[in-house]
Amino acid sequence: MMKKILSAALAAVMALSLLTACSSQAGETTASTQAETAAAGETTEATGGEDSGKLIMATEAGFAPYEYTEDGQTVIGVDVDIANEIAKAMGKELVINNMTFDGALLAVQQGQADFAAAGISVTPEREESMDFSIEYATSRQVVVVLKDAGKVSSVDDVTEGTITGVQMGTTADGYCADLGCEVKQYSKYAEAAMELKNDKLDCIVMDSLPAEQLVAANDDLEILDGELFTDKYAIAVQKGNTELLEQINEVLQQLIDEGKIDEFTLNHTISE
Q1: Same structural domain for residues 224 and 146?
Q2: Residue 109 belongs to domain spanning
Q3: DSSP code of 156?
Q4: What is the distance between the alpha carbons of residues 119 and 236, in angstroms, rounded to a whole number?
Q5: Which of 83-87, 150-154, 241-245 has the least mean pLDDT?
Q6: Within-domain flag for 42
Q7: Is the pTM here over 0.85, yes or no?
Q8: Per-residue DSSP letter, 141
Q9: Which of these, 130, 118, 131, 128, lies nearest to 60 by C-alpha position?
Q10: Peptide bond into 65 cis (omega under 30)
Q11: 75 shares its domain with 203
Q12: Which phi and psi (to 5°) does residue 177 adopt?
Protein backbone atom coordinates (compact mmCIF):
# COMPACT_ATOMS: atom_id res chain seq x y z
CA MET A 1 0.00 0.00 0.00
CA MET A 2 2.85 2.40 0.89
CA LYS A 3 4.51 1.69 -2.47
CA LYS A 4 1.29 2.64 -4.27
CA ILE A 5 1.04 5.90 -2.34
CA LEU A 6 4.68 6.78 -3.11
CA SER A 7 4.19 5.89 -6.77
CA ALA A 8 1.09 8.09 -7.00
CA ALA A 9 2.89 10.99 -5.30
CA LEU A 10 5.88 10.64 -7.65
CA ALA A 11 3.59 10.59 -10.67
CA ALA A 12 1.87 13.76 -9.45
CA VAL A 13 5.21 15.56 -9.00
CA MET A 14 6.32 14.53 -12.50
CA ALA A 15 3.04 15.67 -14.02
CA LEU A 16 3.31 19.03 -12.26
CA SER A 17 6.88 19.47 -13.49
CA LEU A 18 5.84 18.64 -17.03
CA LEU A 19 2.93 21.07 -16.85
CA THR A 20 5.22 23.84 -15.54
CA ALA A 21 7.73 23.19 -18.32
CA CYS A 22 4.98 23.30 -20.96
CA SER A 23 3.60 26.55 -19.52
CA SER A 24 7.09 28.09 -19.54
CA GLN A 25 7.67 27.01 -23.13
CA ALA A 26 4.31 28.41 -24.17
CA GLY A 27 5.16 31.68 -22.45
CA GLU A 28 8.45 31.91 -24.32
CA THR A 29 6.68 31.26 -27.64
CA THR A 30 4.13 33.98 -26.89
CA ALA A 31 6.86 36.46 -25.96
CA SER A 32 8.76 35.60 -29.13
CA THR A 33 5.65 36.04 -31.24
CA GLN A 34 4.96 39.42 -29.63
CA ALA A 35 8.51 40.52 -30.34
CA GLU A 36 8.18 39.44 -33.97
CA THR A 37 4.83 41.19 -34.23
CA ALA A 38 6.29 44.35 -32.72
CA ALA A 39 9.21 44.19 -35.14
CA ALA A 40 6.82 43.74 -38.03
CA GLY A 41 4.83 46.71 -36.77
CA GLU A 42 7.95 48.85 -36.68
CA THR A 43 8.77 47.87 -40.26
CA THR A 44 5.27 48.82 -41.41
CA GLU A 45 5.59 52.14 -39.60
CA ALA A 46 8.99 52.81 -41.18
CA THR A 47 7.87 52.05 -44.72
CA GLY A 48 4.50 53.77 -44.66
CA GLY A 49 2.52 51.23 -46.63
CA GLU A 50 -0.77 51.14 -48.46
CA ASP A 51 -2.96 51.22 -45.34
CA SER A 52 -0.73 53.58 -43.35
CA GLY A 53 -1.71 57.18 -42.76
CA LYS A 54 1.89 58.20 -43.34
CA LEU A 55 3.90 58.85 -46.48
CA ILE A 56 7.64 58.28 -45.95
CA MET A 57 10.10 60.43 -47.88
CA ALA A 58 13.83 59.61 -47.94
CA THR A 59 16.21 62.47 -48.66
CA GLU A 60 19.64 63.97 -47.97
CA ALA A 61 19.23 67.45 -46.52
CA GLY A 62 22.48 68.96 -47.78
CA PHE A 63 21.28 70.00 -51.22
CA ALA A 64 19.78 73.48 -50.94
CA PRO A 65 17.43 74.75 -52.22
CA TYR A 66 15.92 71.31 -52.86
CA GLU A 67 16.38 69.97 -49.30
CA TYR A 68 18.23 71.56 -46.41
CA THR A 69 17.87 72.51 -42.75
CA GLU A 70 18.00 75.90 -41.08
CA ASP A 71 17.97 74.61 -37.50
CA GLY A 72 19.94 71.40 -38.03
CA GLN A 73 16.81 69.26 -37.69
CA THR A 74 13.77 70.43 -39.64
CA VAL A 75 14.13 69.58 -43.33
CA ILE A 76 12.76 72.17 -45.76
CA GLY A 77 13.21 72.95 -49.45
CA VAL A 78 11.70 72.62 -52.92
CA ASP A 79 11.40 68.82 -52.74
CA VAL A 80 9.77 69.08 -49.32
CA ASP A 81 7.20 71.54 -50.66
CA ILE A 82 6.47 69.13 -53.51
CA ALA A 83 6.28 66.17 -51.11
CA ASN A 84 3.82 68.04 -48.88
CA GLU A 85 1.56 68.58 -51.91
CA ILE A 86 1.74 64.86 -52.75
CA ALA A 87 0.93 63.85 -49.16
CA LYS A 88 -1.95 66.34 -49.06
CA ALA A 89 -3.43 64.95 -52.28
CA MET A 90 -3.21 61.43 -50.83
CA GLY A 91 -4.66 62.45 -47.47
CA LYS A 92 -1.54 61.32 -45.62
CA GLU A 93 0.97 62.74 -43.14
CA LEU A 94 4.42 63.37 -44.62
CA VAL A 95 7.33 61.88 -42.65
CA ILE A 96 10.86 62.82 -43.75
CA ASN A 97 13.83 60.53 -43.15
CA ASN A 98 17.11 62.43 -43.56
CA MET A 99 20.09 60.23 -44.53
CA THR A 100 22.93 60.03 -47.02
CA PHE A 101 22.13 60.32 -50.73
CA ASP A 102 23.06 56.69 -51.39
CA GLY A 103 21.07 55.67 -48.29
CA ALA A 104 17.96 57.42 -49.62
CA LEU A 105 18.14 55.50 -52.90
CA LEU A 106 18.70 52.23 -51.04
CA ALA A 107 15.76 52.93 -48.69
CA VAL A 108 13.42 53.13 -51.69
CA GLN A 109 14.81 49.99 -53.30
CA GLN A 110 14.37 48.03 -50.07
CA GLY A 111 10.90 49.39 -49.32
CA GLN A 112 12.02 51.32 -46.24
CA ALA A 113 10.64 54.55 -47.73
CA ASP A 114 7.71 55.25 -50.05
CA PHE A 115 9.74 57.54 -52.27
CA ALA A 116 13.02 59.44 -52.46
CA ALA A 117 13.35 63.09 -53.46
CA ALA A 118 16.86 64.52 -53.28
CA GLY A 119 17.70 66.10 -56.60
CA ILE A 120 17.78 62.61 -58.15
CA SER A 121 18.82 62.21 -61.79
CA VAL A 122 17.34 59.45 -63.93
CA THR A 123 20.06 57.16 -65.25
CA PRO A 124 19.86 53.77 -67.03
CA GLU A 125 21.58 52.13 -64.05
CA ARG A 126 19.07 53.54 -61.56
CA GLU A 127 16.14 52.60 -63.77
CA GLU A 128 17.13 48.97 -63.35
CA SER A 129 16.43 49.08 -59.61
CA MET A 130 13.87 51.90 -59.21
CA ASP A 131 10.99 53.55 -61.05
CA PHE A 132 10.93 57.30 -61.67
CA SER A 133 8.34 60.03 -61.92
CA ILE A 134 8.20 62.60 -64.69
CA GLU A 135 11.13 65.02 -64.52
CA TYR A 136 10.23 68.22 -62.69
CA ALA A 137 13.48 70.24 -62.60
CA THR A 138 16.41 70.94 -64.91
CA SER A 139 19.78 71.68 -63.39
CA ARG A 140 23.08 73.00 -64.64
CA GLN A 141 26.15 71.21 -63.28
CA VAL A 142 28.77 73.84 -62.56
CA VAL A 143 32.31 74.05 -61.23
CA VAL A 144 33.10 75.67 -57.85
CA VAL A 145 36.68 76.74 -57.15
CA LEU A 146 38.71 78.66 -54.58
CA LYS A 147 39.11 82.29 -55.69
CA ASP A 148 42.47 83.10 -57.29
CA ALA A 149 43.69 79.53 -56.80
CA GLY A 150 44.48 79.21 -60.50
CA LYS A 151 44.37 75.40 -60.62
CA VAL A 152 41.05 75.31 -62.47
CA SER A 153 40.11 78.54 -64.22
CA SER A 154 37.62 77.18 -66.78
CA VAL A 155 35.09 74.35 -66.97
CA ASP A 156 37.28 72.98 -69.76
CA ASP A 157 40.06 72.47 -67.19
CA VAL A 158 38.05 69.73 -65.49
CA THR A 159 39.79 66.85 -67.21
CA GLU A 160 41.82 63.76 -66.51
CA GLY A 161 43.75 64.06 -63.25
CA THR A 162 41.75 67.02 -61.87
CA ILE A 163 41.15 66.46 -58.15
CA THR A 164 37.39 66.91 -58.06
CA GLY A 165 34.99 66.89 -55.12
CA VAL A 166 31.50 65.45 -55.68
CA GLN A 167 28.60 64.25 -53.60
CA MET A 168 28.69 60.46 -53.39
CA GLY A 169 26.28 58.70 -55.72
CA THR A 170 25.31 61.76 -57.79
CA THR A 171 25.54 61.99 -61.57
CA ALA A 172 28.47 64.38 -61.12
CA ASP A 173 30.24 61.52 -59.35
CA GLY A 174 29.94 59.21 -62.35
CA TYR A 175 30.45 61.97 -64.92
CA CYS A 176 33.73 63.16 -63.42
CA ALA A 177 34.95 59.58 -63.05
CA ASP A 178 34.27 59.04 -66.76
CA LEU A 179 36.31 62.17 -67.54
CA GLY A 180 39.24 60.59 -65.74
CA CYS A 181 39.21 63.05 -62.84
CA GLU A 182 40.65 62.04 -59.48
CA VAL A 183 37.27 61.94 -57.77
CA LYS A 184 36.84 62.48 -54.03
CA GLN A 185 33.39 61.65 -52.69
CA TYR A 186 31.61 63.45 -49.84
CA SER A 187 28.26 62.99 -48.16
CA LYS A 188 27.86 66.78 -47.70
CA TYR A 189 28.95 69.66 -49.92
CA ALA A 190 30.05 71.58 -46.83
CA GLU A 191 32.71 68.92 -46.28
CA ALA A 192 33.91 69.29 -49.88
CA ALA A 193 34.07 73.08 -49.43
CA MET A 194 36.37 72.69 -46.42
CA GLU A 195 38.63 70.34 -48.40
CA LEU A 196 38.72 72.86 -51.27
CA LYS A 197 39.79 75.61 -48.87
CA ASN A 198 42.45 73.36 -47.39
CA ASP A 199 43.97 72.83 -50.85
CA LYS A 200 42.96 69.16 -51.01
CA LEU A 201 40.70 69.66 -54.04
CA ASP A 202 41.06 71.50 -57.33
CA CYS A 203 37.31 72.05 -57.66
CA ILE A 204 33.80 70.83 -56.78
CA VAL A 205 31.25 69.80 -59.42
CA MET A 206 27.63 70.28 -58.37
CA ASP A 207 24.17 71.59 -59.26
CA SER A 208 24.06 75.34 -59.92
CA LEU A 209 21.42 76.17 -57.27
CA PRO A 210 23.16 74.43 -54.34
CA ALA A 211 26.41 75.94 -55.71
CA GLU A 212 24.94 79.42 -55.40
CA GLN A 213 23.97 78.67 -51.81
CA LEU A 214 27.44 77.30 -51.06
CA VAL A 215 29.22 80.32 -52.54
CA ALA A 216 26.86 82.73 -50.75
CA ALA A 217 27.97 81.14 -47.45
CA ASN A 218 31.69 81.10 -48.39
CA ASP A 219 33.12 84.38 -49.68
CA ASP A 220 36.38 82.75 -50.78
CA LEU A 221 34.63 80.43 -53.25
CA GLU A 222 33.29 81.19 -56.71
CA ILE A 223 31.41 79.52 -59.58
CA LEU A 224 33.16 79.43 -62.93
CA ASP A 225 31.33 80.67 -66.04
CA GLY A 226 29.57 78.03 -68.11
CA GLU A 227 28.40 74.57 -67.20
CA LEU A 228 29.92 71.10 -67.32
CA PHE A 229 26.67 69.34 -68.27
CA THR A 230 22.90 69.60 -67.83
CA ASP A 231 20.90 67.34 -65.53
CA LYS A 232 17.22 66.68 -64.79
CA TYR A 233 15.57 65.54 -61.55
CA ALA A 234 12.74 63.12 -60.77
CA ILE A 235 11.23 61.32 -57.76
CA ALA A 236 12.18 57.67 -57.20
CA VAL A 237 9.83 54.91 -55.99
CA GLN A 238 10.26 51.19 -55.43
CA LYS A 239 10.31 49.15 -58.63
CA GLY A 240 6.78 48.13 -59.63
CA ASN A 241 4.93 50.61 -57.36
CA THR A 242 2.83 51.94 -60.25
CA GLU A 243 -0.08 53.11 -58.08
CA LEU A 244 2.08 55.49 -56.05
CA LEU A 245 3.96 56.58 -59.17
CA GLU A 246 0.73 57.57 -60.91
CA GLN A 247 -0.39 59.59 -57.89
CA ILE A 248 2.98 61.37 -57.72
CA ASN A 249 2.96 62.12 -61.46
CA GLU A 250 -0.55 63.57 -61.28
CA VAL A 251 0.50 66.01 -58.53
CA LEU A 252 3.80 66.87 -60.24
CA GLN A 253 2.11 67.64 -63.55
CA GLN A 254 -0.40 69.89 -61.83
CA LEU A 255 2.38 71.73 -59.96
CA ILE A 256 4.34 72.17 -63.20
CA ASP A 257 1.27 73.43 -65.11
CA GLU A 258 0.45 75.94 -62.36
CA GLY A 259 4.05 77.19 -62.11
CA LYS A 260 4.21 76.11 -58.47
CA ILE A 261 7.61 74.39 -58.68
CA ASP A 262 9.19 77.58 -60.03
CA GLU A 263 7.52 79.40 -57.14
CA PHE A 264 8.88 76.89 -54.61
CA THR A 265 12.36 77.25 -56.10
CA LEU A 266 12.25 81.04 -55.91
CA ASN A 267 11.11 80.89 -52.27
CA HIS A 268 14.12 78.76 -51.31
CA THR A 269 16.78 80.52 -53.38
CA ILE A 270 19.01 83.16 -51.84
CA SER A 271 18.94 86.38 -53.81
CA GLU A 272 22.39 87.80 -54.37
Answers
A1: yes
A2: 54-137+232-267
A3: G
A4: 10
A5: 150-154
A6: no
A7: no
A8: E
A9: 118
A10: yes
A11: no
A12: -65, -40
